[in-house]
Amino acid sequence: MTATMEQVDTRFSEGGQTKGMWAWTVLRILLGWSFLWAFLDKMFGLGFATCRGFGPEGTAASSIDYACDAAVIKGGSPTFGYLNFATEGSHTGFLFQWMAPSAPDAINFADVGFMLALLLLGVALMLGVGTRIAAIGGALMMVFMFLAGDVWPENNPVNSSHVVEMVVLLGIFTVGAGKFSLQNWMVRTFPFMSWAK
Fold first, then answer.
1. 27, 44, 79, 172: which is deepest, by most CB within 10 A?
2. pTM of the prediction?
3. pLDDT tens, residue order, the chain (197 aa)
4. Among 171, 196, 191, CA closest to 24
5. Could you give the CA distance from residue 97 to residue 92 in angstroms, rounded to a whole number?
6. 8 Å CB contact between 42 and 78
7. Taking the CB of residue 101, how many other CB atoms lie within 10 A of it?
């Protein structure tokens, strides 16, 4: 016996709303913020993952050099470190090394695509606009990041944050944006955008 999508939706919904939708909404907004924050930190060198100095012999951070040379606005490559060093520990990393910039200050197509993906994914998830398209794109990006750097990761041979984020994004794709989003406003205001759910 096969069930249509509407029949499946009614089994998991209550009054037209997916049961537990508040949790998916919170996950969507938090995950959106993490992607948007990664974009902002890499773009402007805010001193979290980008532009943080190190103490002697790689000890904890001793200083923050805001807007350092690693920031994109100063010509830094946001993918240089990951594609040159994280790929060394992965069994499939060699598939992605060709995309690596030649130097920390050499921006290439991988950098531009990565930054655009972080920005668009973060904004779409936070606002709840084009959520399903963004979720599939984000899940695909997480698969590529897992394959590039995490296959048989050092700390856990089965799981990594990229796998967890991919599964959450697939869940967001399944349930959609929910009522707490700008999707309905966007479709009413720009009817030609009704395809972007």
1. 172
2. 0.81
3. 455 545 544 545 555 666 788 999 999 999 999 999 999 999 998 888 887 765 555 555 566 777 888 889 988 888 888 887 777 767 777 777 778 777 777 788 889 999 999 999 999 999 999 999 999 999 999 998 888 887 766 677 677 888 899 999 999 999 998 888 998 888 889 888 777 77
4. 171
5. 10
6. yes
7. 20
* Amino acid letter, residue 67: A
Tokens for 4?
A: 């249509």
Q: DSSP letters along the chain, please?
A: ----HHHHHHHTEETTEETTHHHHHHHHHHHHHHHHHHHHHHHHT-SSSSSB---GGG-S---B-TT-TTSGGGT--SSHHHHHHGGGGSTTGGGTGGGS-SSTT---HHHHHHHHHHHHHHHHHHHTSSHHHHHHHHHHHHHHHHHHHTSS-SS-SS--HHHHHHHHHHHHHHH-S-SSSSHHHHHHH-GGGTT--
Torsion angles phi and psi, residue 50, rounded to 5: -115, 140
Give, in order, the Cα–Cα distances in Å from 189 to each of 18, 75, 133, 182, 185.
Answer: 25, 38, 19, 10, 6
Residue with tokens 């009704």: 194
